[in-house]
Amino acid sequence: MPGRVLLVEDETNIMEAIGFLLSRDGWAVNGHGNGATALEAIARLAPDVLVLDMMLPGRSGLDILRDLRADPKTEHLPVLMLTAKGQIRDRDMALALGANAFLTKPFANAELVETLRSMARTANLDDVARGGGAA
Amino acid sequence: MPPAVPPPRYLQRTGSRIRERRLMQGLRQADVAGRAGISASYLNLIEHNRRRIGGKLLIAIARALDVEPTLLSEGADATLADVLFRAAQGGHVGTGTAPEVEMIDALSGRFPGWTDLIAAQQKRITGLEALVDALRDRLSHDPVLAETMHEVLSTVAAIRSTADILVREPNLEAPWRTRFHRNLHEEAERLSIRATAMLAHFEDATPRGDGPATPLETVEAMFDAAGHHFPAIETGGKAAILRVLERAAGMEDSVTRDLAAQMLTAYAQDAARLPLAEIMPAAAAVDFAPERLLHMGQGDAALVLRRLASLPRAPDGSGAPEVGLAICDGSGALLFRRRVAGFAIPRFGAGCPLWPLYGALNRPGQPIVAVLDMPGGGQFQAWSVSQPAELVGFGATPVMRATMLVRAIDDPAHDPAAPTIAAGPGCQVCARTACTARRMIGPGG
Questions:
Q1: Which residues are CB-neighbours of B151 under 8 A, at least 6 positions away?
Q2: In order along chain B (445 residues), what is the average pLDDT of each group of 10 residues?
Q3: Nearest residue, CB atoms, B161 vs list A17, A55, A89
Q4: Residues B318 and B425 reside in one and the same domain
Q5: Å from B135 to nearest chain A CA?
Q6: B171 in any annotated domain
Q7: Cβ(A13)–Cβ(B186) under 8 Å?
Q8: Is A106 within 8 Å of chain B by CB?
Q9: Of the four, A78, B77, B97, B431, which is 20 to 30 A from B360 by CA?
Q10: Which value does ipTM take for this structure?
């Protein structure tokens, strides 16, 4: 069962389309458009999965991801990175910093939905393995 | 006494070619030796391949014979050996057996055709690798292009996701449908603006800090720096090419240098066929209008167009007008570009399919004139012609070349009595999204 997803994305029409899609798929969706205050939004909304754009106003997605992994409260938060720069270097950097998945814009809607479902399933299994029970 | 070992092939050929050139010109050894500052007996040893020759002496003998040093072959064949060595160093990865580099001389001596082929392929590989690196580097290190690409792709992502929802949700509630239609409209507007910004970036004629990247770009930069006019070659012919190359920047790479020498040789041939002293006053008398100068080409209209693109322009703007020039082969690949402000010619890939440059390929030998309306608002007159690159025998297929000269129309009242074409710089960066000639550029459109 999908849970709460937070979209950190500055392109409002992309956020609206993704938000609609994920809502129809059963997710409780929240959106946030500023990189500088993204960590506060994450702490406040406590999402089960995070969709994080690479290039954001105020702070880059990679910097936000780095802080998330350094914080024990969010080190295991599943993160799907989005970027329009489909370069291997960006993908490698995001995955090295601990991103769970990576999609390049323009992506297919079905691919996004399936990736998030897969991440949620994996996160539940990981939670069980860590002794936290299923979400 | 050990058996005589034949000198390496490059040594054999250098002396022999000097001798051939001298005899062709009807010169005595003493004449050439005197001009080169050596004794006739020493030249005799060289001509019989008993002395290695290179550097200043090779240049001196080349000057004495009024030929390019590379034509005398030691340079070319030393380069051949070097190219083969580089091919051996880099080309055997994965083949399991390392090439026998110590056998290069023997190989080139016994199989000159095969070694020339290997060398040509190695040069091509080097050129292609440089091009791939340049393209990758350009996208990675051009912050404006990277940012604009990011914005365009984000807009495309929004359009793709929104359109997908509209198509796949036939029973979408009216408020959502209205909202997504509005979003699509917004994103289409945004895409138009961002594509225009990308076009402006390509059209920016200001030299960038990263400089030219490919051999062709480096050579074009050399031509740009000279204003596409080389006084030394105009007066000194082919013999001046070496001096021009010595003073030009970026000629360290042999591929670039060879390409530059080839293009300057073509320039020298044009200058010899239609000298500056003839074309300049004649062109000035008819306001540099190609259609009134075609007779000077004696059947070669492309020669007239090329010469008009190589006339001098004074720093105060007097002299020949600023013009652009594009030359392509029968496949449409651009072989040479002279850019002019407001008329972008793509760095890579094809130009606009509506350019008369390509139309001329369908009408060989028939000069075409047209007025091009560019998306940025500029208007240019374009003269174009295609013809065989060189005469071939009966039954042979000629290699076609098309040439297009463009010149800005500054006077709004100017009526060139030519068809007007709504053209662009090339589909990759063109803002005319509704153009019927537009090619799809990859899955993103």
A1: A84, B194, B197
A2: 42 71 84 88 82 75 82 58 70 63 72 79 72 62 67 87 89 90 87 74 50 73 87 91 84 81 94 94 91 90 95 76 91 86 75 92 90 82 91 82 90 69 80 77 37
A3: A17
A4: yes
A5: 13
A6: yes
A7: yes
A8: yes
A9: B431
A10: 0.85
